[in-house]
C-alpha cells in the first residue's frame, strides 16, 4: 500500500528596488515579466511558521531585510512606520518578485517510517529520497506615499540618495506623511505533480505515485501615518487588515507485491482550505542622533474578525482486508499574526550606510486554530458505518528571535552596491509521527529554518530609483510524509534540505513623473489617432 506526502520549503528573499528613470523602470518590468512568462513554473518547497519568508520593499530586502532604523521604501510601513517620514515628496514605491529557483531534498520520503513486516515483509528501499528543482512566481509590494504637511516650502525631507541626512535635520520638525500599502509578508508554497517512484527489495516490488500542492499566504493592507515630533524624534503607526490563506491538495497511491504476487494497495486523498481575516496595529518610533539612527517597532496581537475552513480526506487499502475511511467537514479557521518587538540601529556615513536589526516574535498557544464539524464513514469488507466528525485543531507557535544586518556602499553618488545577511527561524514546533486518519483537521505539515544572503545594485536619479538583486538562501527542517508501509497509513517525519535563489526588481518614482509620462502618452496617442487635430 502506499502513498506519501511531500512538502518542504525552499526559501527566498531578495529584492531590487530603486532606479533611474520611469522609462528604465518600465523597461525593466517588461523585460522581467517576459523572462518570467517564458518559464514553466512549478511550486517551490517551503514551510509555514516563517515570519520572514517573503521580502518586502527593495532596498530593505537587499540589505538583509533590515529597515527598522533606516527604512525608506515599501517595507517601512511594516518594519517601522516611523521611518515613513524619511521618504521624500509624493512617491509610489514597488517591488516585483519575478521568479525564484529552488531545490529541495527530502530524505527517506518514499519510506519515511518503520515497515509493518507482517504485511510487507522485510522491505528495505535503497533510494527513498526525493529531490525537486522548481521555478516559482512570487508576490509584490506596492505603496503610495503622500506628504500631508511640511514646515517649510523648501523642505523636501530626507533625500533618498542622501548619505548624510543630518544636514536636513533642522528642517524636518513637523513633517507628516501618509502611506497606503499592500504587501505579502509571508508566502510558502510547494507543489509536485506526478511523482513516479518504483523501488525493489529482496523478493518485494513497490511503486508509488503522488501529486501535492500546498500554499500559505499572508498579506497586509492598510494606511500608515508618520510624523516628526521634533528634529530628532518621529512616530508612526500602520493599521492593517491581515489576510491569511491556506490551500492543500494531496493525491497519493501505492502498490506493493512479493514474489508470489501477493499484493497490498492503498490510496490516500486529502484537500483542505482555510481563510482568516484579522486586524492589527504596528506602531514605531525613530530617533536620530548625529549620524546614528535608532528604531523600535511593536506589532500588536491581531484581533480575529472571521475565518472559514473546509477539509476532506479518503483512505482506502486492500490486500489484507478491504477498508475505506472517508471524512468531510467545514468550520472556522484562525491564523493570527504573532505579537512582535523589533529594534534597529543604523549609521550613515559619506560612503553609505550600515544597519543591524533584531526582532522577537512571541509564542502563541493558537498559531493556527480550527473547529470542523461534519461526518465520517468507514467501510470494512463491504459493511458501512457512519458517525459525526467534530474536530478541533490547535497548533502552537514558538517564540523566535531573528536577526539581520545590511550595508549599502556608494561607488558613485547615484550608484550603490547592497548586501545583507538574515535569519528566518521557524516558529513551528518539532513534528512528530501521527495517525494519518487525524489529517482532516491538520493544517501544519512542515517546518524550515533558513539563513539568507542578499546582494544587489541600486541607481538613483531625480525621477526615480531602481534596484535589482538576488537573495540566496539555505534551509533545513522537517516535513510530514505518508508512510504507506503501515496499515492504516501513518504520518512519519522526513528531513528536508533546501536551497533557493530569488530574483526581484524594485524601485520608486514620483507622482509628478508618472503624471508627465501619462500626459506624454495621451499626447502621442492623440497625434497618432488625429494627426491634424491641432493643425489649422
How would you summarize the topology of this molecule?
Layout: H1 22-37, H2 59-62, H3 76-79, E1 91-107, H4 117-120, E2 130-136, E3 140-149, E4 176-201, E5 204-228, E6 233-258, E7 263-289, E8 292-299, E9 303-318, E10 323-334, E11 340-349, E12 352-361, E13 364-380, E14 383-397, E15 400-412, E16 415-424, E17 434-435, E18 446-461, E19 464-483, E20 490-510, H5 511-529
Antiparallel strand pairs: 1-2, 1-3, 1-20, 3-4, 4-5, 5-6, 6-7, 7-8, 7-9, 8-11, 9-10, 10-13, 11-12, 12-15, 13-14, 15-16, 16-18, 17-20, 18-19, 19-20
Structural class: mainly beta
Strand content: over 45%
The helix content is under 10%
**Which consecutive residue ranges, at least 5 long each, have pLDDT under 50?**
1-46, 153-171
Strand order of the largest sheet: 1-3-4-5-6-7-8-11-12-15-16-18-19-20
Topology as H/E string?
HHHEHEEEEEEEEEEEEEEEEEEEH
- CATH homologous superfamily classification: Outer membrane protein transport protein (OMPP1/FadL/TodX)
Query: How many distinct helices?
Result: 5
Looking at CATH, which topology would you report? Porin
CATH class: Mainly Beta
The pLDDT mean sits at 78
Number of domains: 1
What composes the largest sheet? 14 strands, antiparallel, barrel
N- to C-terminal distance = 84 Å
Radius of gyration: 27 Å
The number of E-state strands comes to 20
CATH architecture: Beta Barrel
Give the overall silhouette: elongated
Structure report:
This protein has a 14-stranded antiparallel barrel with strand order 1-3-4-5-6-7-8-11-12-15-16-18-19-20. 9% of the residues lie in helices and 57% in strands. The protein is elongated and about 85 Å long. It is built from five helices and 20 strands. The protein has 536 residues and is mainly beta. It has a single domain, classed as Porin (Beta Barrel), CATH 2.40.160. The longest helix has 19 residues.
Amino acid at each position: 500500500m502506499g502513498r506519501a506526502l511531500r512538502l518542504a520549503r525552499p526559501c527566498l528573499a531578495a529584492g531590487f528596488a530603486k532606479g533611474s528613470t520611469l522609462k528604465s523602470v518600465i523597461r525593466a518590468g517588461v523585460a522581467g515579466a517576459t523572462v518570467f512568462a517564458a518559464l514553466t513554473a512549478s511550486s517551490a518547497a517551503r514551510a509555514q511558521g516563517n515570519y520572514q519568508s517573503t521580502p518586502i520593499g527593495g532596498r530593505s530586502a537587499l540589505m538583509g531585510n533590515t529597515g527598522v532604523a533606516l527604512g525608506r521604501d515599501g517595507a517601512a510601513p511594516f518594519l517601522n512606520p516611523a521611518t515613513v517620514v524619511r521618504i521624500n515628496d509624493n512617491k509610489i514605491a514597488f517591488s516585483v518578485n519575478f521568479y525564484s529557483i529552488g531545490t529541495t531534498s527530502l530524505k527517506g520520503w518514499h519510506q519515511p517510517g518503520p515497515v509493518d513486516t507482517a504485511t510487507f515483509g522485510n522491505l528495505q528501499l535503497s533510494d527513498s529520497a526525493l529531490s525537486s528543482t522548481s521555478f516559482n512566481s512570487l508576490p509584490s509590494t506596492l505603496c503610495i506615499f503622500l506628504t500631508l504637511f511640511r514646515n517649510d516650502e523648501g523642505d523636501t525631507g530626507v533625500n533618498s540618495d542622501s548619505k548624510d541626512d543630518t544636514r536636513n535635520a533642522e528642517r524636518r520638525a513637523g513633517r507628516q506623511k501618509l502611506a497606503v500599502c499592500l504587501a505579502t509578508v509571508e508566502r510558502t508554497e510547494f507543489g509536485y505533480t506526478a511523482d513516479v517512484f518504483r523501488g525493489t527489495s529482496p523478493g518485494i516490488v513497490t511503486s508509488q505515485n503522488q501529486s501535492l500542492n500546498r500554499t500559505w499566504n499572508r498579506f497586509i493592507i492598510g494606511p500608515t501615518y508618520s510624523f516628526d515630533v521634533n528634529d530628532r524624534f518621529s512616530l508612526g503607526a500602520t493599521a492593517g487588515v491581515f489576510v491569511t490563506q491556506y490551500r492543500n491538495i494531496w493525491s497519493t497511491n501505492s502498490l506493493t507485491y512479493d514474489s508470489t504476487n501477493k499484493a497490498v494497495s492503498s490510496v490516500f486523498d486529502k484537500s483542505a482550505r482555510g481563510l482568516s481575516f484579522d486586524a492589527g496595529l504596528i506602531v514605531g518610533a525613530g530617533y536620530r542622533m548625529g549620524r546614528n539612527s535608532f528604531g523600535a517597532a511593536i506589532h500588536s496581537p491581531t484581533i480575529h474578525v472571521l475565518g472559514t475552513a473546509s477539509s476532506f480526506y479518503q483512505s482506502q487499502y486492500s490486500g489484507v482486508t478491504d477498508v475505506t475511511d472517508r471524512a468531510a467537514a467545514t468550520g472556522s479557521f484562525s491564523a493570527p499574526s504573532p505579537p512582535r518587538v523589533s529594534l534597529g540601529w543604523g549609521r550613515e556615513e559619506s560612503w553609505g550606510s550600515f544597519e543591524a536589526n533584531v526582532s522577537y516574535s512571541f509564542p502563541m498557544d493558537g498559531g493556527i486554530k480550527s473547529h470542523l464539524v461534519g461526518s465520517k464513514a468507514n467501510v470494512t469488507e463491504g459493511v458501512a458505518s457512519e458517525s459525526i466528525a467534530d474536530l478541533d485543531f490547535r497548533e502552537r507557535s514558538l517564540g523566535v528571535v531573528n536577526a539581520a544586518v545590511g550595508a549599502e556602499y556608494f561607488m558613485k553618488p547615484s550608484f550603490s552596491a547592497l548586501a545583507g545577511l538574515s535569519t528566518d527561524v521557524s516558529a513551528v514546533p518539532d513534528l512528530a509521527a501521527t495517525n494519518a486518519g487525524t489529517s482532516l483537521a491538520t493544517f501544519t505539515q512542515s517546518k524550515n529554518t533558513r539563513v539568507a544572503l542578499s546582494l544587489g545594485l541600486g541607481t538613483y536619479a531625480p525621477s526615480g530609483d531602481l534596484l535589482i538583486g538576488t537573495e540566496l538562501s539555505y534551509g533545513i527542517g522537517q516535513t510530514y510524509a505518508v508512510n504507506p508501509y503501515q496499515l492504516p497509513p501513518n504520518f512519519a517525519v522526513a528531513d528536508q534540505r533546501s536551497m533557493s535563489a530569488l530574483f526581484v526588481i524594485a524601485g520608486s518614482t514620483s507622482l509628478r513623473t508618472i503624471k508627465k509620462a501619462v500626459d506624454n502618452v495621451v499626447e502621442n496617442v492623440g497625434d497618432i489617432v488625429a494627426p491634424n487635430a491641432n493643425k489649422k
